[in-house]
Design goal:
This protein is of the alpha/beta class and 754 residues long. It has 22 helices and 27 strands. Strands 9-6-5-4-3-2-1-10 form an eight-stranded parallel beta sheet.
Length: 754
Amino acid sequence: MPVEEMMVRLSCLSGVGPLSLACGLFFGGLTAAGAQADVERRVEDLLSRMTLEEKLGQLNLISHGPPLRWEDIAEGKAGALLNFNSAQDVARAQALARQSRLKIPPIFGLDVLHGFRTQFPIPLGEAAAFNPDLSRLASEWAAKEASYVGVQWTFAPMADLSRDSRWGRMVEGFGEDPYLGSVLTAARVEGFRTGGLATATKHFAGYGAPQGGRDYDTTYIPPAEMYDTYLPPFRAAVKAGSVSFMAAFNALNGTPSTASPWLQTDVLRNQWGFDGFVTSDWAGIHELIGHGVAADGAEAARKAILAGVDMDMMGQLYIKHLPDEVRAGRVPEQVVTEAARRVLRTKMRLGLFDQPDIDPTHVDSVFPSPESRKAAREVAQDTLVLLQNRDNVLPVAPGVRTIAVVGPLADSPRDQLGPHAARGHDSDSVTILQGLRQRAEAAGLRVEHAPACDQFCRNTDKLPAALEAARKSDLVVAVFGEPQELSGEAASRTNLALNGRQAEVLEALAATGKPVALVIIGGRPLVLGTLAEKIPSIVMAWYPGTEGGTAVADVLFGDANPSAKLPVTWPRATGQVPIYYNRLPTGRPTLPNNRFTLQYIDEAITPLYPFGWGLSYTTFAYKDPAIAGTRLSPGDNLDVSVTVTNTGTRPGKEVVQLYMRDPVASRSRPLRQLKAFEKVALDAGESRQVRLRVPVEELGFHLDDGTYVVEAGDIEVFVGGNSLAPSVGKVVVAEPIRIPPTEQRASASPGVVR
């Protein structure tokens, strides 16, 4: 039986998988009124029979391995379990839970970020596709595979916006733009849910802006900037139905997020109406002691639960200290009851009380399947960014007969998967070298591989052999970048240049005079220096996943036309970061030959490649832009149309991007803001009118108290293929709009491209 059919048949029996909703499982706000009333009735019945200790057991999230005691599950002391990634262990824990007095099932969580066994491109690469449908597809596949072995809950998506590529966890997010981040966060929540996983959107909030790009360091973000820039993707997750949130490690403006009533209660619950639960990050409650806001574990537990953190991940402080805190009157028992209510409500909505245990014979070795590989290949193709292509080095020209593949990352399956690869196996990967060899063999071409240096390029003893292979070739494909260990959590960097002696190797390859195409593997933009001038063709491949090799070969040979765009601004030098397109204006804008304007004395102020940048093997022309209705009132849309023509000789896809600027406002506003995009596929010579709509209510900004305002006046509009898009005119907002923090804006939901 095909794996896909097997999962579909089992989904109704297991309570997980692609048909879980149709089989009666309840997710987030999608339940009908009657079903929701039944959920609340059942929750209240349970709470009325629970002791304080049993309620606290529901708030204890413990990992597989020490300090987990399996008997704690039978005693009702573990409401949630993480790092259970085999059906046998899940089934054992479920059987133990049925031995507890109230038989409350635990929820099983795992970091499933960009695939379970089949690995898709890392989220930052996925963002480059500018395609929410692909984000849903990748997340759905990850969920199908994980839920097949009993995982029910993923600590994803990471909705943290980041403008600083020194921060290693940028790889897990969607880049620097709040609108793109909102669209893709919503799409991933929806995709995970369709595939059978509930989501814990993380890290709430501000985690992506640490001082100095140092992971876990403090952040300072004014409230209005939080509302405008860092919170929108999280709000999109609420609207999309995320059942839980994870509190961030960082301190925000002096208050650790795990102890912040403003974040967990005021914003998330009171302003946004979220009624799911919040979990800490790993030992995040215990870390309040390190933050200097708690003297001991008891005070840390008290501050976290009073702030609104419902679940203690790997701290065991709630279950240890809160009984005494409640009995001493320092924590009202109602606070514990409400936290347990949120957890139980979510479990009821997910159908955990009503589904049978997982089948322990399920194993992840049935993956990758042909279907999942096909999906991973398609997604990866759409994430590769063609940064430059002088002299049309790519795609591989008809006259090329020999290709030299140079670089240690060309045949490194582990590095290709990227950080947080869940159950991904190196042996599942098609490496870039393998992909190129397979494709070259089909075309009668010869491929020679020469690594040139070790994985971290510290030793270049093999460089002479690589240069000899390059001289004998018609084309050099150089595969360099960041080994997996240099990206992800706890991988902050002070120098974004290619590590080791990679630049030296690439300089030597360029000096051979052979055409060179550089494929960069990595989780962030890397500083290229003079290499951008010396190497004609550069492709950003991110960490492309299980089918990365076939996808890269597809693009390099022209079987697939690159269409991705940068979700982050690419710096010229590390000293430029944080760098981002939607910055505020200055009273002294950059003027050539004027030292006393915005500039550096040793580097250009501009990025190497702007946000939204990405080339194709074809070309696109924009003409006849038109704005329908230049005077906007409440309830109206900014409605812009433009005709896009494929002026080249190949079919291709273009991401049409709409930006706005409020040039005169009560607060300084960004120079550009992405407000809509649409990805269109066009045959050679084909033209299409693309229409982008933005509700007038989306043209404003927040005040420090969370009030949203759209001020009367001019709005400038820009449309094109990247953030340097030309102006197409302006509109006038006729009447001001003011929306209190607790009201929803009348706008299209994120995830729907306008």
